[in-house]
Amino acid sequence: MQETTANQVAxxxxxxxxxxxxxxxxxxxxYNRAMPAAAAATPLQVPHxxxxxxxxxxxxxxxxxxxxxxxxxxxxxxxxxxVFPADxxxxxxxxxxxxxxxDLTRLFQVELEHYEKIEGTLLSLDGKANRLGAMIRxxxxxxxxxxxxxxxxxxxxxxAGVGRLFSYDVTGGRYEEREHHxxxxxxxxxxxxxxxLWRPNLAEAEAVSVAVESLYDAADDDxxxxxxxxxxxxxxxxxxxxxxxxxxxxxxxxxxxxxRIIEARSAERREA
Length: 272
Hints:
Radius of gyration: 20 Å
Organism: Pseudarthrobacter humi
Mean pLDDT: 85
Low-confidence stretches: 36-41
Function: Component of the proteasome core, a large protease complex with broad specificity involved in protein degradation.
Number of strands: 14
Structural class: alpha+beta
Subcellular location: Cytoplasm
Catalytic activity: Cleavage of peptide bonds with very broad specificity
């Protein structure tokens, strides 16, 4: 009996944790949870996360997100985190329906850890990007009901020795971006700032400053984006990824960067 059970487990083994859930417990997948008929017919008021910026810099990639989640015209949270490490060499930023996005992020983290344990090696960066696209594609029925998730994915390609950045659409379409990219309701304003501030081969500290300033500009014109908040001591979540792995920028550094930006704009008496 034990040998038969072991053979069944071995026969069903897969390097994809998502495939395992889809086969054995599909109800546990974030996008397979049934919605009440009344809820499906009426637009849901749920927290949404915005805005995420990402860029390449000399030696790696950087991703940053503001801390605000909105629900209609109400601020649902000022403390939400939207950028997470996916594994040692990649990060994921979420925009869209916050609850589903966070669950997808956790599932993606487990997916990569499961693959590493089963195969004994890290999944390639292209493989990670493809698997994330498949997860987003699985959420398409929910997206058609207004519960969309649109992430950014970035990581360090240990084979090529470069940082790479990927964007997605709601159907799971994957697109590799050059230089920088943004998603979320404030993305158009953040992208405008990046076009002026970004340049090739930025130093890490310069890239952090550019990211914070682009989020500051987004918050200036988009009510769903929260800028640096010195009163509450709230700063964006910023991660860098290079050949040493993913690192979260300490809040003390972000406070200093935000302080310099605010001081410079105050000295110039800028209104826009």
